[in-house]
Amino acid sequence: MTPLYHDLSGETVVVFGGGPVGARKAKGFDEAARVVVVSPEFDERLLSLAEDGESDDETGDDGNEAPAVELVRAAPNADDVAEWIDRLAPALAVAATDDGAVNAAVESAALDMGLLINRTDVSGGRDPGSVVVPATVEDDPVTVALSTGGTSPALAKALRERIEAEIAGAGAMAALSGEIREELKSEGIPPEKRREAVRRVVRSRGVWKGLQKGRSNGRQEADTVIEEVLDR
Ligand SMILES: C[C@@]1(CC(=O)O)c2cc3[nH]c(cc4nc(cc5[nH]c(cc(n2)[C@H]1CCC(=O)O)[C@@](C)(CC(=O)O)[C@@H]5CCC(=O)O)C(CC(=O)O)=C4CCC(=O)O)c(CCC(=O)O)c3CC(=O)O
Ligand SMILES: NC(=O)C1=CN([C@@H]2O[C@H](COP(=O)(O)OP(=O)(O)OC[C@H]3O[C@@H](n4cnc5c(N)ncnc54)[C@H](O)[C@@H]3O)[C@@H](O)[C@H]2O)C=CC1
């Protein structure tokens, strides 16, 4: 398995199956992509996600059309799914029904069309072209994605919970060190010194602690580290 971060903005994700698993996957993708869930019945969570999307569209407060989760009430059989996928033209198809034959048909249709496919009903090794949904921790712009190669989802979840504590504050550190990196570049600091400074900043306990108190405290601590490295 090779981990990659995928930009799904502007793409469609189709989820077959509207149970708790289909709902969790839809929720995971709805911020980035247009999500269409095809199922004869829908989990409560999906019904409220779809409603949220509608009310955002109505108010249109920020001018951005919030990608809503669209629900399509249907129960395609194994022979029909290829046509559904063809019509919806997704980048990724998620097979999350409780019908193994339908899930298998979603997989083979998606593979035939060269799309990404996530089979939620199989663990262990993947067929070529098949992807897993990792456990994810986010502190924007930092994202940690964790997979056990499809072997033990419960372990992926447990490790994710540990990492959540471990990366607290990483978003602020990314913002600060990214800014410092750009500044040192534009000041024409030689590459070796610049890299050393940035490496020291992201490892400095003082800077991490400072950032907990606020951005300017973090910046002050970072400036001390940078001065040391640059001998100024
Ligand atoms: C292969 C994979 C395919 C895919 O879905 O992409 C898959 C497959 C299956 N999961 C099953 C069960 C559970 N899944 C979870 C939880 C998560 N499952 C997720 C991903 C994946 N699950 C992919 C591999 C990821 C990897 O590489 O590690 C996470 C990480 C991401 C997400 O789904 O959002 C999310 C945690 C998110 C978080 O909290 O951070 C729990 C835990 C719980 O519910 O507490 C259980 C119960 C305990 C257990 O069984 O382990 C079953 C058995 C169904 C049955 O028994 O019938 C199958 C199918 C099978 O095993 O055949
Ligand atoms: N990947 C994961 O994290 C997990 C995966 N699973 C697997 O995922 C499957 C789904 O799990 P749940 O959501 O808990 O099951 P569920 O049985 O609650 O939901 C299945 C959904 O699929 C719908 N459905 C049935 N036939 C359909 C068709 N032809 N087309 C479209 N939708 C159809 C049903 O109406 C229902 O809404 C399970 O069968 C299991 O194998 C289960 C737990 C976790």
TrEMBL record:
Q: Which SUPFAM superfamilies does the entry link to? A: NAD(P)-binding Rossmann-fold domains, Siroheme synthase middle domains-like
- UniProt KW keywords: NAD, Oxidoreductase, Porphyrin biosynthesis
Q: Which GO terms describe its biological process?
A: siroheme biosynthetic process
Q: List its EC numbers.
A: 1.3.1.76
| Pathway(s) served | Porphyrin-containing compound metabolism; siroheme biosynthesis; sirohydrochlorin from precorrin-2: step 1/1
GO molecular function annotation: ferrochelatase activity; precorrin-2 dehydrogenase activity
Show which residues constitute the signal peptide: none
State what protein this is by name: precorrin-2 dehydrogenase
The cross-references to Pfam families, in alphabetical order and at most eight, read:
NAD_binding_7 (PF13241), Sirohm_synth_M (PF14824)
Residues of the region (Disordered) are 211-232
Tell me which NCBIfam families the record gives: cysG_Nterm
Q: Which organism is it from?
A: Halorubrum californiense DSM 19288
Q: Which reaction does it catalyse?
A: precorrin-2 + NAD(+) = sirohydrochlorin + NADH + 2 H(+)
Q: Where is the Siroheme synthase central domain?
A: 139-165
Quote the InterPro entries the UniProt record gives. Answer: Met8-like, NAD(P)-bd_dom_sf, Sirohaem_synthase_central, Sirohaem_synthase_N
